[in-house]
Amino acid sequence: MSTHKNLNLTLKVWRQKDQKAKGNMETYQVSDISTDSSFLEMMDILNEQLINEGKEPVAFDHDCREGICGTCSLYINGEAHGPGREITTCQLHMREFNDGDTIYIEPWRANAFPVIKDLMVDRTAFDRIMAAGGFISVNTSGNTVDANAIPIEKANADKAMDAATCIGCGACVATCKNSSAMLFVSAKVSQFALLPQGQVESAERAQNMVKVMDEEGFGNCSNTGACEVECPKGISLENIARLNREYLSGSVKK
Amino acid sequence: MATLDSRIPEGPIADKWTNHKNNIKLVNPANKRSIDVIVVGTGLAGGSAAATLAELGYNVKAFCYQDSPRRAHSIAAQGGINAAKNYQGDGDSTYRLFYDTVKGGDYRSREANVYRLAEVSTNIIDQCVAQGVPFARDYGGLLDNRSFGGVQVSRTFYAKGQTGQQLLLGCYSAMSRQIGKGKLKMYNRHEMLDLVIVDGKARGIIARNLVTGEIERHSAHAVVVGSGGYGNVFFLSTNAMGSNTSAAWKIHQRGAYFANPCFTQIHPTCIPQHGEQQSKLTLMSESLRNDGRIWVPAKKEDAEAVRAGKLKPTDIAEEDRDYYLERRYPSFGNLTPRDVASRAAKERCDAGFGVGTNETGEAVYLDFESAIMRYGQEDANVKGVHNPSQEQIRQLGEKVIETKYGNLFQMYEKITADNPYKTPMKIYPAVHYTMGGVWCDYNLMTTIPGCYAIGEANFSDHGANRLGASALMQGLADGYFVLPYTIGDYLADDIRTGAIPTDTPEFDEAEKAVQERIEFFINNKGSKSVDHFHKRLGKVMWNKVGMARNEKGLNEAIEEIRQIREEFWKEVKVPGVADGINPELEKAGRVADFLELGELFARDALEREESCGGHFREEHQSDEGEAVRDDKKFTFVSAWEYKGEPSDAILHKEPLVYDNIELKTRSYK
Q1: Which of A229, B90, B137, B368 matches a 20 to 30 Å C-alpha distance to A150?
Q2: Of A99, A98, A43, A49, which Cα lies nearest the Cα of A74?
Q3: b/e string for A91-129 if b means 16 or more Cβ within 10 A?
Q4: CATH topology of domain A123-253
């Protein structure tokens, strides 16, 4: 962790005009970056500098800047969301770096997530997986049973919550050598499989979501566990085991 | 000129909504299939509306600027959602939730709308549980509650400190189901840039595809705007970086009145600004005030020593601390409403007792020490630990706090590098939510026929101050349970209209204006970035139109914003191209709208010569520094009509009538 108050840094940034263009790494210098700044504030400063120099700023995805919307991505020094565990890029702060460091900044790399400009990728494949089964089939009329009519064991409610905290950022895919989306899919399947209201269509859900996952070009899981390590929300590999179980039970029922 | 008819149904307040639903027109299922609805924004309000309208059978097109509807900023709401379930048996009821909300809003909201909100609140919880939202539960498997500011019951449902996330993902699931069926067409990375009006009715929008830069025409029989609030007019706020007022402002420019722009919520517990490089502020949930105690040093010299880094908060003795909320408001203590808590923090910091070690020196403590020791003792008793040491109690207590607020504590530590289990958090107020917004009637329709405003984008339910955990409630109430009924009353007349063509002069005109503006930005050879202007606007807003306002400052603000706006149109520099991804171009359009809204905001604050809720005019305060309302003159909604320059906007007044609640001076003492 840095002891300097302000940092001077060399940045190697992936630049790519659009989805079809060939990209390359560009080198930039930034100076006087406060160690209290977030990584994305450092990117803002770089962009302000580029605009003032008459150059095009670096496009990157970001929105809430508090680690919950899942918009920000970035491969920083070879790690999804950079150094540090259980954080997103927007929660990474410059105090994690040292004066004089060179930082490599790249987009997510996966066939199912094409780069659309610089550091931005297209993650709509996740939306399509969700549309295949990431829901409980209930209409939003409000005419359901009372919320307390079905007690849910606290342990299961808590596990469902842990799975449900997935922010859909895609770090699991980006970090996996197979570009597998198993952690993402398993988190949603587990959340619903652990709750009585979701169990009804659980096996079918797993089948439908996995089908689209395969069609979108995500790879398979080979149990290396990198996804769990890089997941900003600490989603557990246990969920993949549960997905496999639900998937298998769906195959048997067919 | 549009008329300002709030269309509140007749009858006793408890029957209004039921009677209204029974009397409005319906569209039969077969006819719904030939009706199109556009929804702009996919947060809790827009997302729930899009899903429900599609379920009902309408053809829905939904738009969001994010790369997925799941990312709308509702996701960042932390603490919880209110509902009058009375599961705790502590005397809660629809009436009490209604009463608390009207009182919390300092008697500047519309009674009938708020009552309906309280009435449908219980459906929301049932609905979300059915959708698989994993709310917190106790060991018996039933739903847990906590308390929030400004009320004396426990009616807040929560999912750790991520309630907004879980509710939005519930909504997103419901949308995904309709997307899969083909009833809902989602337009990600699209931004609405204008509203198209045909024969006086909202009939479509012009949108920009943010990936290709293409300008697109989309038609519909009704347009619903659920695009959130305008807090980013302050540059620094707890809103997402992309949160903007443009969709709301475009419909305002096309004839929808804009109500109470000066009613803005400054949230008391946010992480203080670290310096000039800051791009956004982070909220620490109000739920922390359930267990955290807010204080500053009682002695000025201690505060100075803390700011100079010579004294640690943990070294200040109990008797040398000023728990100022508990001192000033004994009956609500740390759970006073947000406006009151924010002003009290500012008062202490202005008086020289702030403890910020940042560049501004502004911060107060939020301390969990007593809660940790109290919970630790309780847990030791439960676990049968005899004669526990202080250290054992502390460890047990920290575990309890971790289960309640773990993610918030982690978030705090990531940002500040301070461990809040060991030293008090430092917090300071920040812009968070806007109660003002597009004016709408009881049906949530704006002054443009066929154009609706829902969620934070409208104005009706929170008056001059919103209570904690009520934003999620309102967003979902509007989208799931109110709009889907009321919109049918309007669309029933459109069953024979057929698809709205887009090759008409109205669409031509709107598209041309949008194109011209984009070309202007790209071709303008200015010298300053968009952020340069946004930051300047934000400083004026915060310093002169922020937590405390006065006539002189507001007049100065109006003049300064006008100058910034003029300079913006001359000097703004937008790099990049129009026909591709260009975040600077997107920002330029949004800041242009903020520069108009900011001035109207200041004008509204100037006209409202009273203090109420989040609007505090220094000229109108009691000897003790409390807000003083002027009910005789100001019990109305300010609804502004667009006329070009903000200085030309025309003020219309909707009188607020209180038949069911007596107007009182709000007291939390």
Answers
A1: B90
A2: A43
A3: bbbbbbbeeeeebebbbbebebbbbbbbbbbbbbbbbbb
A4: Fumarate Reductase Iron-sulfur Protein; Chain B, domain 2 (1.10.1060)
Tokens matching residue B383: 């676990």
Contact B38, B204 (CB under 8 A): yes
A86, pLDDT greater than 80: yes
Residue of B166, B472, B164 lying closest to A163 (CA atoms):
B166
Nearest to A95 by CA among A107, A84, A106, A79: A84
User: How far is Cα A42 from Cα A40, in angstroms, rounded to an integer?
Assistant: 5
CB–CB of B581 and A120 under 8 A? yes
Per the structure block, which two tokens stand in for B314? 């943990």
- CATH number of the domain encompassing residue B567: 1.20.58.100
ipTM of this complex prediction, to 2 decimal places: 0.97
Q: State the angle between helix axes of A202-215 and A238-253 in degrees (0 to 180), rounded to the nearest 10.
A: 100
Here the tokens at position A248 are 């298998």
Q: Select from B76, B131, B141 the Cβ nearest to the Cβ of A69.
A: B76
Exposure string over B549-577, b if 16+ CB within 10 A, otherwise e: bbeebbebbbebbbebbebbeeebbbbbe
Q: Which of B338, B348, B617, B629 is catalytic?
A: B338
Q: How far is B60 from chain A (nearest CA, A)?
A: 15
Dist CA B561 CA B558 (whole Å): 5
Cβ of B242 under 8 Å from any chain A Cβ?
Answer: yes
B contact test, residue of A44, A97, A140 with most B CBs within 10 A: A140
Task: Indicate the average pLDDT of chain B.
Answer: 96
> A38 to chain B: which residues are within 8 Å by CB?
279, 415
For this structure, is B338 an active site residue? Answer: yes
Pairing of strands B201-209, B215-219: antiparallel
In chain B, the largest separation of any two C-alpha atoms, in whole Å, equals 83
DSSP 8-class letter at B500: P
Q: What fold, for A6-116?
A: Ubiquitin-like (UB roll) (3.10.20)
Q: Tell whether A153 lies on the interface with B, counting CB pairs under 8 A.
A: yes
| CA nearest to B455, candidates B246, B262, B225 | B225
Size of the A and B interface in Cβ pairs below 8 Å: 219
- Dist. CA B362–CA A190, nearest whole Å: 45
- Do B409 and B516 share a domain, yes or no? no
Q: B53 touching A, CB under 8 A?
A: no
In a domain, B291, yes or no: yes
Q: Distance from CA of residue B460 to its chain's centroid?
A: 12
Q: Which residues of A touch B143 (CB under 8 A)?
A: 147-148
Q: What is the mean pLDDT of residues B615-632?
A: 95
What pLDDT, in 10s, does the model give residues A205-254? 999 999 999 999 999 999 999 999 999 999 999 999 999 999 999 898 76
Q: How many domains does chain B have?
A: 2
Give B223: exposed, middle or buried? Use CB within 10 Å, 0-12, 13-18, 19+. Answer: buried
Contact B126 A71 (CB under 8 A): no
Among the residues of A17-167, which ranges form H helices?
39-52, 124-133, 154-164
If asked whether residues B554 and B411 sit together in one domain, one would say no
CB contact under 8 A, A140 and B417: no
| pLDDT attached to residue B3 | 67
Domain ranges of chain A: 6-116, 123-253
Coil, helix or strand at residue A231 = coil
Interface contact A63-B241, CB threshold 8 A: yes
pTM, entire model: 0.97
Would an 8 Å CB–CB cutoff place B179 in contact with chain A? yes
